[in-house]
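User: I'm putting together notes for a lab meeting next week and I want to include a structural view of one of the chains we've been expressing. I don't have a solved structure, so I'd like a prediction I can at least talk through. The sequence is below, exactly as it appears in our construct file.
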Amino acid sequence: LEQVVRELDGVGRDGTVNDIARIIDRQFGSSALDEQIAKSLLNSLGSKRSASHVVAVLSCLQLRGLRPTVYLASAAILACRRSKDWSSALVILKEMAASQVELDTIAYNAAISACEKGGQHDK
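Assistant: Thanks for the context. Below is the predicted structure for the 123-residue chain, given as structure tokens.
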């Protein structure tokens, strides 16, 4: 996972979903990604303060057949919180609502915390 995070950092903020999909495909090939690996990847992005690609990574995982769950959403939003990326946290909340994923207190609190850490108390 460290290699994936380094490569994601290498594409910078302007990396597209296709760029990110190529990195994930190169690392994992055609093997199925399970929820635990996906959560670990999202957590790694958050711990490295590299949450700029969390939304795109979450989209790529869904394109690879991994259904969004409250656990993936929470991991993604927590990664955004660690990076103070409040706007991505809110995007994930909206996407999960559109996917009919029922979020829990952890996800909502993490999104609120991301807004606070990003100086967006009114969001």
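A couple of points you could mention at the meeting. Helices lie at 2-11, 17-28, 35-47, 54-63, 70-82, 86-98, 105-117. DSSP finds seven helices and no strands in the chain.

User: Perfect, that's what I needed.
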